[in-house]
Amino acid sequence: MANTQIAAAREGTVTEEMERVAKRENRDPEFVREQVAEGQAVIPANTNHDALDAMIIGRDFSTKVNANIGNSETTSDLETELEKLHSAVHYGADTVMDLGTGSDLDEIRETHLEHSPVPIGTVPLYEAVKQADSPAEITTDLLLEIIEKQAEQGVDYMTIHAGILAEHLPLTDGRKTGIVSRGGSIMASWMEENGEQNPLFQVYDEICEIFAEHDVTFSLGDSLRPGCLADACDEAQYAELDTLGELTRRAWEHDVQVMVEGPGHVPMHKVAENVERQQEVCDGAPFYVLGPLVTDIAPGYDHITSAIGAAMAAQAGAAMLCYVTPKEHLGLPDEEDVRDGLAAYRIAAHAGDVGAERPGARDWDDALSEARYAFDWREQFRLALDPDRARDSHDQTLPGDNYKEARFCSMCGVEFCSMRIDQDAREGDGDGMERLTEETNLENSPAAEVNLPPVGTHEGADIPGSEHDQAPAEPASDD
């Protein structure tokens, strides 16, 4: 009997998870099965994660967004972590990575999995560092023990930094920012201290066996991703990518699902090149990118610098985007930073889907534009990516209910509102300008669920701490 989604797909079976994904994506279940069978898409769905509502990640499906959360030695407890989870789901995260490095990791992880309707990802190397006396003391037995434990707990996908090899390390010597991946720096330090090959690479087949037993999806870590524009697309980054392609094919031989992580900091003119190269080297396995940030000059605004690159990557074929918050490179995000980061990335993902001409993706835009032209303020708010933010912005200057019927906002006022002027001209007796009456019916749209309002489709999930007030989250760049 097939234990994994890819094994079932290769046998010709359409699983319950594939049926659910097909409904959410407005696609034929057989197409979903074919994509999973060929490794072009993954359904992260650990057999032990009972609360999961299955989703899919692949370039031929709607672009997904991940949010990183997690505690540290100095911040957060179980209740706060649950608030983080709720906030992430509420603001539209399709998956959540728990990058915790503090106390009570098992209790927090198990509680997340008990309640989370979205896939949960982890980086088991972090727990190994906590248990060892030092990074250099990590053993392959410890790594396998932790990976197996997390798989049994129900973790849906794990970042495994198996692609950074000893021979890659000298290639980083000329960089401006060295190795910026937390996991990559740990593995590099381990190899330098022990004079041996990457232990995750050495036991990769054993990891595949554990993943196959519980249907854990690989998220192959990009340990040598660039941490600045100057380091983008260098020999070190692409040498590791070649290894990730080999590891992808080895995992497929074990009937294990794979996605591949990507950069990082990349100038705009090289974003598409990165996506295209990964797709070629990794035989079309889904690409999961952090950003990429297209400039290094904007600390405090890196949710914007990265969302620009994320939209370009999504249009080029990246399957999932890892959000970045305004606190990137600076500190621990609070709940408002998480909100802003997820808004930026939901915009990037949707813009990428529109740019890639996904079926029905633009229908949401058209419906909101029609409401805007009709001065239907309440419908604009309802259709907005963040309805509360849209309503609050409008009401700061025109707060009364009577202004919800007004044919102007405070930007132009009554006299200079172009849409009012245009409407009046069309309603008059003039020639050549017909009245605009076209309406978009979102109920009949072929768009995938994530390209239709409202954001946060798991709002009814049974996640304690649903007040989600001031919940910090871990920075996105450290996986």
UniProtKB/TrEMBL annotation:
Region Disordered, residue ranges: 425-479
Ligand binding (substrate): 68, 97, 126, 161, 181-183, 222-225, 261, 288
EC supergroup of this enzyme: lyase
Cofactor note: Binds 1 [4Fe-4S] cluster per subunit. The cluster is coordinated with 3 cysteines and an exchangeable S-adenosyl-L-methionine.
Top-level taxon of the source organism: Archaea
EC number: 4.1.99.17
Binding-site list for Zn(2+): 265, 329
Pathway note: Cofactor biosynthesis; thiamine diphosphate biosynthesis
Annotated keywords: 4Fe-4S, Iron, Iron-sulfur, Lyase, Metal-binding, S-adenosyl-L-methionine, Thiamine biosynthesis, Zinc
Alphabetized GO MF terms: 4 iron, 4 sulfur cluster binding; phosphomethylpyrimidine synthase activity; zinc ion binding
Biased composition (Basic and acidic residues): 425-438, 459-471
Biological processes annotated in GO: thiamine biosynthetic process; thiamine diphosphate biosynthetic process
Binding positions ([4Fe-4S] cluster): 409, 412, 417
Required co-factors: [4Fe-4S] cluster
UniProt catalytic activity: 5-amino-1-(5-phospho-beta-D-ribosyl)imidazole + S-adenosyl-L-methionine = 4-amino-2-methyl-5-(phosphooxymethyl)pyrimidine + CO + 5'-deoxyadenosine + formate + L-methionine + 3 H(+)
Pfam families recorded: ThiC_Rad_SAM
Function: Catalyzes the synthesis of the hydroxymethylpyrimidine phosphate (HMP-P) moiety of thiamine from aminoimidazole ribotide (AIR) in a radical S-adenosyl-L-methionine (SAM)-dependent reaction.
Protein family membership: Belongs to the ThiC family.
Protein name stated in the entry: Phosphomethylpyrimidine synthase
Species for this entry: Natronolimnobius baerhuensis
